[in-house]
Amino acid sequence: MTETRSMHPLRWLVVGLCGLALVFDGYDLVVYGTTVAALRREWGITGAEAGFIASLSLVGMLVGALGIGTLTDLLGRRRTLIGAVVLFSAAMPLCALAQGPGTFAALRLVAGLGLGGVMPIASALVTEYAPPGRRNLTYVLMQSGYAVGGVLAASLALAVVPEHGWRPMYVVGGLPLLLFLPVALRLLPESVEYLAARGRTEEAAQLAARLGMQAPAPAEAAEEQRGRIGVLFSRPFVVPTLLFWAMTFCALLLIYGLSTWLPDIMREQGYPLGSALSFLLAFNLGSIAGSAMGGLAADRFGSVPVIATTFALGGLAILGLASDPGRFGLYLLCAVGGYGTIGAQNLINPFVTRAYPQHARATGVGWSLGIGRLGAILGPAVGGLVLDSDLGPDWNFYLFASVAGLGLLATLGLLLTGVVRRPRPTPDLAPAVPAAG
Predict the structure, then answer these.
(1) How far is Cα 383 from Cα 61, in angstroms, rounded to an integer?
(2) What mean pLDDT is reported for the chain?
(3) pTM of the entire structure?
(4) TM segments (predicted)?
(5) Domains of the chain (ranges plus CATH)?
(6) Secondary structure element (H or E) that encloses residue 314, with its range
(7) Which bin fits 420, alpha (ψ -120 to 50), beta or left (φ > 0)?
(8) Region 151-165: what's the mean pLDDT?
(9) What is the crossing angle of helices 273-301 and 303-320, to 10°?
(10) Contact 411, 214 (CB under 8 A)
C-alpha cells in the first residue's frame, strides 16, 4: 500500500491528542516562571533556591525521558503516553496544596517524571502518523502545543497571580485528567510500528489498512530485536547522536532558563509584574508563529540549515535584550528569541526521530531529550545564581546568547562530519543520516 497525502481522521486525532498533551507540558514549563516571584515572597527563598526547585523538576524529566524506551517496550506507546499524562496532571494540583518549599519541590519532581515521558512518545507517534511530505510541518504544529501552553500560563498569570496568588495556577494543571484522559482511553490507537515490532503483524496490518498507512515490512519489524540503545552508538550513528545531544542540551537550557527567569530579569530592569509577564507571553507567541514557518522551510530545504538559522536568530535576539531598544523592540526581540529557542527544539525533535530506524525512534529521541535535560536543569540554576550575583541581569542575556552560539556550532557540525545528505524531493521520508548497517 502507498500512502497518500490525505489522512484518516483518526490519524489527525492522534496528532491532536499529542498536541493537547504538549499544551499542558508547555503550561508546566511556564507556570513556574510566572509564580516564582510569589513563591519567593511567601516562603522567603533565594534566587538560587528557586533555581534549585526548578532544576529538581527537570531531574524528574531527565529520568522520565531516559526510561521511556523501556516503558514503551513493556506497555506500548499508547499506554505509556496516557500514563505519563496522568502522572504529571495528578501531581500538579497537589503542588497547590504544598505548605512549604520541600513538599512543593518533591511534587514538582514527581510531575517531572511524567512530563519527561510525554515528549518522546508524542514525537514518535506524530512522526509515524503524519502525512507524507508534511512531516516537519505537522510535527511543529503539534509541537506548537508546547508554546500554546506557555501562552495560556502567561496570560492566566496576568489575571490570576496579582489578585489570587500562585496556587490556582497549579490547580489548572490538573485539567488533562478531564480533557485528555477520557478521549485518549476511548480513541487513541496503538502505534502500528510498535505492533509490528512486537510480532503482532496481523493486528498491525489491519490497523494500517484502516488508517490508510503502509505497515512496516517484516524485516523492519525484526530490527526491534537488535536492541535500541545500541543503535544510537553504532558506527553510522555515534557522531550524529552526540551532536543531537549537544543541540538539545543548548536548546533546552535556553528554553527553561529564559522561561523561568525572563519575568524576574525584566522586573530587575524596572518593569512592573504585568509588563514582565507580557514579555514571557511575547516569547511564547513568537515561537508559535516562527515554528510554523520553520516547519515549512524544513520540509522544503532540509532540517539542518533551518535549525542552524533558528539558533543564530535566537542568539542575536537574546543578545539584543541586553540593549535598550524600547518597549516595542523588547517585545519583538522576545518573540524572535522564543522562535530561536522553543522553535529550534521543535525542529530538532522530528529531525532526531526520523534519523533512527523505526524500532529505535522513541529511544533515540528519548535519550536526546534526556541528555538535553541536563541543559534544562542548568538553565534555571545558573540563571538564579547570576541573578543573585553582582554581575547585573544583563549577564543572563550574555550567557544565554553564548549557549545559542554553541547550539549553532553543534548543528553545523552535522554538515562538517558529512553524515547528513542533501534533502531529497520528499525529505520527510528520507533518513537524515545513513540507516544502520
Answers:
(1) 19
(2) 80
(3) 0.69
(4) 12-30, 50-69, 81-99, 105-127, 139-161, 167-188, 237-258, 270-289, 301-322, 328-352, 364-385, 397-420
(5) 9-429 (1.20.1250.20)
(6) helix 303-320
(7) beta
(8) 86
(9) 160
(10) no
